[in-house]
Amino acid sequence: MTKTPFLWLVLIVGAPAFALDDEAWIERHMQGVRIIEAPAPLVQRVAPTVLAVPLNDLGKHIGQEVSFVLDTGRERRGTIRAVSASTVTIVTRLHGGRAELDVPRASIKSASKRP
User: Fold this and answer.
1) What letter does residue 49 receive in the DSSP assignment?
2) What is the dotted CATH code of the domain comprising 51-113?
């Protein structure tokens, strides 16, 4: 003799009773909850401040991170390590590590940094 029909009968007949218990519990639980509808605050994005660095003053910014735009349009970013009459040496991230690059001063179109 199998008990499967009896099990189905209990599940079918008992399901609405369990649902009513759940609804009653939810109703009691929600009685103490107040929902406050307020608009979300507006977030204004501010563009980062960028300061122009005069090309004659690059020696004053040794140890600081500076971005260069070259005459080819390419951008180089790095920390200035040394400045000479013909080159600016920067330390930059490259392929998961760091590299020291010599950038010819004649090819630097502009320089900028973040405060």
Assistant:
1) P
2) 2.30.30.100
